[in-house]
């Protein structure tokens, strides 16, 4: 089995189409890609994909294999990055990642602590989805990240920061906006905008778990790939969405939010880092986690 087999398989699985993966991701001929996937399945000994007129779908074995394939590719890239770093002088920069939107809460507190301790260090900021931040930590391209506790992230350590309740996002002139809080059954009766299982797996799991506990059926009519897309879809389709509380700070005038009646579902925010990262600055920041939380809580008025 070669690395190219894993890359080809991941591309096909993510695109859901041999043709699209061949043309857009791999820049190869579709028949050649089909042969490579067939060779991989022969070597593994099980079918990984079901092929149909509407594209390809992962078999149960394929879903398991996909997680391992992604991890293997990330570890290979991390090994190359580590080798390149070892051949270079010590870095004077430090890369911090934020799940998009959270930098508004946490970046000022981080920068205040770093300026007082190491004013000459260059701080590089990344704002991405949580799975991309986890991948950056695994590859060694990000030193510390504020993200969700991602699964299938070997070598990463997560330290809890806080749990954010989910709120109901809606157009400002929506009928539900006249209420002080939203009942679970009200959510089930509205056009619902879901979130991507690939781009926001932890948030989707929290929403699905809440729907199960509240005994409501949520069938998304649209799916948002990120927070900005969710806000835009709420405004344009007049649907509603369940989004973490911090998003309130990002809303335009046309969109508003309301709390959920009863026990609100929550989603966890953590600090993540690679256990193989020996950066002194990383150790310094990890020793200041309690101070970071205090500063943010003070600014939030909690």
TrEMBL record:
One of its GO terms (cellular component) is protein-DNA complex. Residues 1-59 form the HTH lysR-type domain. Signal peptide: none annotated. Pfam families: HTH_1, LysR_substrate. Keywords: DNA-binding, Transcription, Transcription regulation. Gene3D superfamilies: Periplasmic binding protein-like II (3.40.190.10), Winged helix-like DNA-binding domain superfamily/Winged helix DNA-binding domain (1.10.10.10). InterPro entries: LysR_HTH_N, LysR_subst-bd, WH-like_DNA-bd_sf, WH_DNA-bd_sf. GO terms for molecular function: DNA binding; DNA-binding transcription factor activity. NodD regulates the expression of the nodABCFE genes which encode other nodulation proteins. NodD is also a negative regulator of its own expression. Binds flavonoids as inducers. Belongs to the LysR transcriptional regulatory family. This is LysR family transcriptional regulator, hca operon transcriptional activator. It comes from Bradyrhizobium erythrophlei. The lineage of its organism: Bacteria, Pseudomonadati, Pseudomonadota, Alphaproteobacteria, Hyphomicrobiales.
């Amino acid at each position: 089995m070669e690395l190219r087999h894993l890359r080809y398989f991941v591309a096909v699985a993510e695109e859901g189409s041999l043709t699209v993966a061949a043309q857009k991701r791999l820049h190869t001929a579709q028949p050649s890609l089909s042969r490579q996937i067939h060779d991989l399945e022969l070597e593994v000994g099980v079918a990984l994909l079901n092929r149909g007129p509407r594209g390809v779908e992962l078999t149960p074995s394929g879903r398991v294999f996909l997680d391992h394939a992604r991890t293997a590719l990330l570890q290979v890239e991390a090994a190359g990055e580590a080798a390149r770093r070892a051949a270079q002088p010590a870095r004077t920069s430090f890369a911090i990642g934020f799940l998009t939107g959270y930098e508004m809460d946490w970046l000022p507190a981080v920068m205040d602590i770093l300026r007082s301790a190491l004013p000459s260090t260059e701080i590089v900021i990344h704002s991405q989805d949580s799975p991309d931040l986890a991948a950056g930590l695994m590859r060694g391209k990000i030193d510390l990240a504020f993200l969700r506790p991602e699964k299938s992230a070997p070598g990463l350590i997560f330290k809890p920061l806080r749990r954010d309740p989910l709120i109901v996002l809606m157009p400002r002139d929506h009928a539900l906006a006249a209420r002080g809080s939203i009942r679970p059954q009200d959510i089930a009766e509205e056009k619902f905008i879901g979130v991507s299982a690939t781009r926001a797996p932890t948030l989707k799991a929290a929403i699905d778990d809440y729907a199960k506990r509240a005994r409501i059926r949520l069938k998304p009519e649209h799916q948002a790939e990120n927070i900005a897309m969710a806000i835009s879809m709420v405004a344009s389709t007049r649907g509603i969405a369940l989004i973490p509380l911090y998003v309130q700070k990002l809303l335009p005038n046309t969109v508003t939010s309301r709390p959920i009646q009863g026990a609100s579902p929550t989603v966890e925010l953590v600090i993540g880092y690679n256990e193989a990262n020996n950066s002194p600055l990383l150790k310094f920041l990890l020793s200041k986690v309690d101070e970071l939380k205090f500063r943010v809580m003070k600014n939030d008025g909690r």
